[in-house]
Amino acid sequence: MYHSNHYVISLFVLFTGLFTNGLYSQETPECFGNACYDELKMTSYPKDLSAEAVVLYDIGESRFDLTNDGFELIYERRTKVKILSKAGFKYAEIEIPFYKDGSRAEIIKEISGKVYNLVNDQIQSTAIDPKNKYVEVESEHWSVMKFAIPDVKEGSVFEIRYIVTSPFLFNLRNWEFQTSIPVVYSRYTTKMIPFYEYFYILQGASKLDYFQSYEESNLPKRYFGADYHDVVYIFLLKNIPAFRDESFITSYHDYIIKLDFQLAAVHQPNGTNIKIMSTWPQLIEDFLKEDSFGKYYKSSEGYSKSILDTLKLADHSAIEKATIINRIVKSNFNWNGRKEKLTSQSAKEFQRSKTGNSAEINLFLTALLKSAGLDANPVLISTRDHGKIKTDYPFQHFFNYVLASVLIDSNYYLLDATDPMSQFAEIPSFCFNDKGLLIKKTKGDPTWLKLVSTFPSSINYELDWTFDASQDSLIAKTKVASTGYDALDLRKSYAKDIQELKKDLNVESQQLSNLKVENNNELDNPFIVTIDLMQEYDESSGKVLIAPFSDFVMNDNPFKMASRTYPIDFTYQKERTYKATLRIPQGFKLFSKPEDLTINNKDILINYSSQLMEDKHLIINAKYVIKNDIYNSSSYSSLKTAFNLIINRFNEEVILQKL
After folding, report:
1. Cβ atoms of residues 464 and 477 within 8 Å
2. pLDDT recorded at residue 152
3. Please, are residues 209 and 82 in contact by the beta-carbon 8 Å criterion?
4. Residues 149, 128: contact at Cβ < 8 Å?
5. How far is Cα 485 from Cα 469, in angstroms, rounded to an integer?
6. Over 50: is that where the pLDDT of 17 sits?
7. Residue 471: how many CB atoms within 10 A of its CB?
């Protein structure tokens, strides 16, 4: 289950709180700094025999170093990993994130380490030299350096060390104790100074195995006439289990055991204090004053009149106005693919380039709606991969995206103009992440808007099977009709490549012909794919086995754990409907067919039925409906059972017997 503790750490408050201090030693693992023979001989991890790899230790330290320009943050990390199988090779692919802002950026340096292998019962080591490292840009401010550890084999042990120097004092590194593989030993040390006060949240655990805080006893340091000592905080956990079941969740960051830091205040040597952490109303006001948010939004209103004059909206209803404006922005401005909460160009530059990040597009959309007389405001959110917002803590870094909202007849409509293929109020599915903050001045509590789908998405499969005796095959004239987010996804696949569409329909490996699409540009109508599928059969045994729904039904249950302690998030409600018509040819009779099945409870609807008509047509209808976007963990067992029933019954074959 999710637990949360929070504390302020600074020179002035040495808080040991709820931690178990002194009950566990903080000794480092055996063979620290080199590879042990026993580590290399290990073929499995006793506490988790299914582990593909195991982190033997993960040790980090953050400290403040004084330079000619003031303080900089130094983050140093050392990690040792044992690879247990080929599936574990992916853990030898290293990713180091770093932050940048304009011409300033964090610097990654002193990357070093070794790979150890056992050759002829002797330990051999290879130095790590990341010559093939490269950088991927994830957003305007975050990039990731990536490289692969060389010479990794089953049984290898590798150890890596690096340092990140940062001029951004707000960016004290968070620490993740838990990963998707077990961790034997994880320790994070922060060396704090009295001029910067941080607030932190411990997620996923109620206590640590070891916690200690103390003031260093060496000679004092001096900053602008003020003497000070570092205050050291040590956070330690041992034998942390793998976080494995990552299906149907927002982000694993919401559930793993980790420490999350936020700059709370700055204390100047002259006695001046600057409070960084504030209240939600203050945070809203700060965003509205921000040049790359509120001021951009206000200046965008100046460009609205010329656009609105061409639309002639006077005789339209509020919902029609919002729909037209949303479509105009989608049609005339292009998203550069970057998810941002702040703009990186002026409103004037955006109007000229017609291309921008999500904040530039959606803040302009908001301004256009407001200029049309609608009650429109921005909404700050955190996308699914970014983690949930903890509404008890007004941290700016919880947010990474902005939507537009419009209030019509007491209903809030959330809008996004980054995707020209989406319908009105069809925000990207990656935005469905609990709630978003309405950025509007208010005297009372802030307004939080739910981020949930307002309609189910569906795919309807119809297969009409006939025999082709000349080729010992069955031909299915197939129609696949989709709506909502399912239609949006298939339209995007079709726009990329016909092979992508076949892959998403699960027909890429089948014999098929006459593939056609309908309503590709009619976004308010279902997206339809028609296709002829061929399935060979063998009647030598006197029987013919037919999968009535071909490969359109899932065949692997995504729920594999015995139990689950966190919610099941399907993103949006889903509906799948199947109809198969089988024309039984002369010389055959129906030997067996699956039994009918009906389940209808608060979680799911499952229906399977078949009927043999007088003209020897067998008609099979099947359907399942995921009724909710999100389920509590208490529903895990029943959902797992329901998915097994769907897989087994919907994939069950019809058997015909030769007369």
Report:
1. yes
2. 95
3. no
4. yes
5. 40
6. no
7. 11
What length does the chain have? Answer: 659
Ramachandran sector of residue 465 (left: φ over 0; alpha: ψ -120 to 50; beta: rest) = beta
Per-residue buried b or exposed e for 294-317, using 16+ beta carbons within 10 Å of the residue's own CB: bebbebbeebbeebbeeeebeeee
> pLDDT tens-digit profile of 541-559?
889 999 999 999 999 999 9
Q: Which residues contact 319 (CB under 8 A, 6 or more apart)?
A: 408, 413
Q: Phi and psi (nearest 5°) for 216?
A: -65, 145
The answer to whether the predicted template modeling score (pTM) of the entire model surpasses 0.90 is no
Write the pLDDT tens digit of every residue in 339-395.
Answer: 999 999 999 999 999 999 999 999 999 999 999 999 999 999 999 999 899 888 888
Alpha-carbon distance values, 11 to 63, 195, 393 (Å) = 13, 8, 22
CA distance 164 to 73: 8
Contacts of 44 (CB under 8 A, 6+ apart): 51, 84
How many CB atoms are located within 10 Å of the residue 560 CB? 10
User: What residues contact 295, with CB distance under 8 A and at least 6 apart?
Assistant: 289
Give the separation between CA 343 and CA 362, rounded to whole angstroms.
10
Q: Which two tokens stand for residue 488?
A: 């949006």
The pLDDT confidence band at residue 442, using thresholds 50, 70 and 90, is confident
Backbone angles phi, psi at 486, to 5 degrees: -65, -40
Measured CA to CA, the distance from residue 336 to residue 363 in angstroms comes to 15
The C-alpha atoms of residue 556 and residue 182 are separated, in whole angstroms, by: 25
Q: Is the CB of residue 578 less than 8 Å from the CB of residue 621?
A: yes
Q: What H or E segment, with its residue span, contains residue 44?
A: none
User: Which residues share a beta bridge with 458?
Assistant: 483, 575
**Beta 355-356 vs 334-335: how paired, if at all?**
parallel
Distance CA 93, CA 150 (A): 9
- Closest Cα partner for 178 from 204, 156, 157, 198? 204
* Buried/exposed code over 234-247 (b: 16+ C-beta within 10 A; e: otherwise): bbbbbebebbebee
Per-residue tokens: 147: 């490289």
The one-letter amino acid code at 195 reads F
Please, are residues 182 and 48 in contact by the beta-carbon 8 Å criterion?
A: yes
Continuous H helices in 354-420: 358-371
DSSP helix/strand/coil, 245: coil
3-state SS record for 551-593: CCCCCCCCCCCCCCCCCEECCCCEEEEEEEEEECCCCEEEEEC
Do the strands 511-518 and 527-536 form a parallel or antiparallel pair, or are they unpaired? antiparallel
